[in-house]
Amino acid sequence: MVYGACVLKAGLYWGIMNTPPLEFWFEFGSTYTYLSAARIEGAAAAAGVPLSWEPFLLGPIFAEQGWDDSPFNLYPAKGRYMWRDVERRCAAYRIPFARPSRFPRSGLLAARVACLARARSKGWLPEFVRAVFAANFAEDREIGEVAEIRSILDSLGEPGARLVEEAQTPENKERLRERTRRAAELGIFGAPSFVVSGELFWGDDRLEDALSWAKSRAGGREKGGR
To answer: Which domain does 95 fall in, by range?
Structure first.
């Protein structure tokens, strides 16, 4: 029995190590990314797919498309649908939701902190991401303000004041610009986006498809064809 259990664990470990990671490209101002951030870690673990957290900014990408605001603000009918759709999906997933009094809020500082955590392989990154999204879309807090980000970090047991200061160094600002450039190179045009070995999936409702794609590429073999 012990030998069999060891073989099973070894097989599971081999499968995870040979499964391409799911890159989760997130932007803190995005409503649908709130949904994905709340559930992606559990979904990826259940599927046996490694997960990579990739912060970026949508503003520069939208600017390239000629937009100076969220498309949900530029196209009112689309915006009305989005708010009702997010409300429905949050209820279905049992995720707290309160429409923010201002949309979109700046996620610049939060993204810089996330970049810092990513560069240092800090284990608190996923918890920080979820906390910022909840502050924006469940608690109606001004996540663009230094005090709010500092407070969130402090609540996680991290040195908020120091991390906020380090996140705003020129070196770290460049990290976020590089992440945003990389997102554009991958063809990302919205959030959330999921990338598996260069294959792009867009939208919270494509999370399961992206995980299935990653699983089908385990060991470098394409099992399902294209």
So the answer is: 21-220
